[in-house]
Amino acid sequence: MAHMAPTPVIEPGQDRTMILNMGPQHPSTHGVLRLLLEIDGENVVRLMPDLGYLHTGIEKTCEAKFYQQVVPLTDRIDYLCPMTNNLCYVLAVEKLLGLEIPPRAQWLRVMLNELTRINSHLVWLGTHAMDIGALTVFLYCFREREDVLRLFEMVSGQRMMTSYFRIGGLALETPLGFFDRVKAFADRFPARVDEYEDLLTNNPIWTMRTKGVARITAEDALALGASGPTLRGSGVDFDLRRDMPYTSYEKFQFKVPVATEGDVFARYIIRVQELRESIGIVKQALEGMPEGPIKSDAPKVVLPDREKMKTQMEAMIYHFKIITEGFTVPAGEVYQGVESPRGEMGYYVVSDGTAKPYRVHMRSACLANLQTLPKMCEGRLIADVVAAIGSIDIVLGEIDR
Amino acid sequence: MPRQPAITDLEQLKTHPALARILAWNPTAVEGAKFDRDELSIYIERFFIREVCALLRDEAGCPFNFLSDVTCVDWYPSEPRFEVIYHLLSIPNKERVRLKVRLNGSSPVVESVISVWPAANFFEREVFDLFGVRFTGHPYLRRIQMPEDWEGHPLRKDYPVEGYR
């Protein structure tokens, strides 16, 4: 990051080349990513990402908060998939504590996670298509995204920074009529995905801008730590939801889309198929939603119900203690990985036995995916850089934390 | 749910393929191991980390072909102060293992694993930036999150949360 001098400085390597600065205030960089391009005419010879413009020190802040106070911070890391971040963090702490989560809470978590994936992919599709020049798709995607955000607002009171998951379960029972609204959305959504595909998949301009562009091989993608659609687009069939299941994902039926081309189009088609799979998971969750509590029975960790707090002495004491002193977590360390819309999101939480985490580290899928960008772009045109950035679906909030 | 106590006895853990492979290669490379909450951590002597990583990556039966993460924990004021942590994932076997290297506080230096996994590039730069751990053999070890002219390493425990004012 640079306040004064434009660092890092790179010098043109050859007589013919020049350095072009792209970003951080560039509309196609999806936030504040700065790229240094060494170009020969229109061709990119070398590409170097410069990050850190959104670094807010969330990992450091976590160390000064109680365990339950970290949940709202995790929303703010990746503002397109708050629930996935919530989930990953609470799963890690629950593993440290050894908590059992009731089935209803798990199924609701799965359902909300898939809605989050849809939300994130819709923003990605809209902005990615806009970068490449298909402006219409943006309006269509944001129409459905609005529906998802309204569902989030209904369930958690917030559109974006939901903080709905709690260590040991969920914050609240879902409001009346919520499942009907989700069902109505799930019923109409597949037809909407058809609309996006009508606009793009067979569109000759779209295919010319995406097919064969920004290729990456499976070996390179693996070696550079890429995950999620970026890895599956190169033919590596790996999805944490299916292969290392968490939160009862093993009880759901879904396909993991894989493509072998490794280009922008492959990553596009995978995400579009994931939209369809995700809505299928949402439907399964709705049909099989178990009855029961949404919080686990651990009074020292989980806040009591409001009603109990006002009528029972013990519940009031626990409430007071959790709020004022937090709860202690047995010493140890845990790494929990979940499949975020962008790839493997991982939380590494270290406890020293006190009420505050000793260390919270987030493994950012975007940070690793961004490392593939030079491989994708070098030797190609500047216009392809824009397509490549869009295709790896970066969120700078998550990269810089 | 009662939690199982952590297993730290090397003999009991030998059945794990990753640990068995390292022990068969060079027993002096392993300082210890811990199996806790279904996760295996192996403490590696710091001079061997790159070779151990290459060994696990190229292991035929259980190749750890994906580097999930590199990070660090500061145990200030105890010594050895830093623990650099590598999370490896085996995509074919769907298994994780955690490697740890302990470094002292006065000169935290460890060999870079970038030649084994190019993915380590940004991760190691981040650890260098926020903890001040140096990675020898890294081709471009510069700050990644903080400004170039920043003083100090913010994620160290002796660095105040609110920063120096």
How much of the sequence lies in strands of chain B comes to 25-35%
Principal-axis shape of chain B equals globular
Percent range of helical residues of chain A = 40-55%
Question: Which regions of chain B contain 5 or more consecutive residues with pLDDT less than 50?
Answer: none
Tell me the number of strands of chain B: 7
Q: What overall form of chain A do the CA principal axes indicate?
A: globular
What's the topology here?
The complex is a heterodimer of chains A (401) and B (165).
Chain A: E1 18-22, E2 34-40, E3 43-50, H1 58-62, H2 71-75, H3 82-97, H4 103-132, H5 135-156, E4 165-166, E5 169-170, H6 178-200, H7 204-210, H8 218-223, H9 229-232, H10 240-243, H11 264-287, H12 306-311, H13 313-325, E6 332-340, E7 343-351, E8 359-363, H14 365-370, H15 373-377, H16 382-392, H17 396-400
Antiparallel strand pairs in A: 1-2, 2-3, 4-5, 6-7, 7-8
Helix pairs in contact in A: 3-4, 4-5, 4-11, 4-16, 5-6, 6-11, 11-16
Chain B: H1 10-13, H2 17-25, E1 30-36, E2 39-44, H3 49-58, E3 66-74, E4 82-90, E5 95-103, E6 109-111, H4 120-131, E7 134-136
Parallel strand pairs in B: 2-5, 6-7
Antiparallel strand pairs in B: 1-2, 3-4, 4-5
Give structural notes.
The complex is a heterodimer of chains A (401) and B (165). Chain A has 401 residues and is mainly α. Chain A has 17 helices and eight strands. In chain A, the strands form three sheets. Chain A has a three-stranded antiparallel β-sheet with strand order 1-2-3. Chain A has a three-stranded antiparallel β-sheet with strand order 6-7-8. In chain A, a hairpin with a 7-residue loop joins strand 7 (343-351) and strand 8. In chain A, helix 3 (82-97) packs antiparallel against helix 4 (103-132), helix 4 packs antiparallel against helix 5 and helix 4 runs antiparallel to helix 11 (264-287). The model of chain A is unreliable at 1-6 (pLDDT under 50). In chain B, a hairpin with a 7-residue loop joins strand 3 and strand 4 (82-90). Chain B contains four helices and seven strands; from the N terminus they run H-H-E-E-H-E-E-E-E-H-E. Helices cover 21% and strands 28% of the residues of chain B. Chain B is globular and about 50 Å long. Chain B has helices at residues 10-13, 17-25, 49-58, 120-131; strands spanning 30-36, 39-44, 66-74, 82-90, 95-103, 109-111, 134-136. In chain B, strands 1-2-5-4-3 form a five-stranded mixed β-sheet. Chain B is α/β, with parallel strands linked by helices and 165 residues long. Classes of the chains: A mainly alpha (401), B alpha/beta (165). The interface between A and B is large, with 50 and 43 residues.
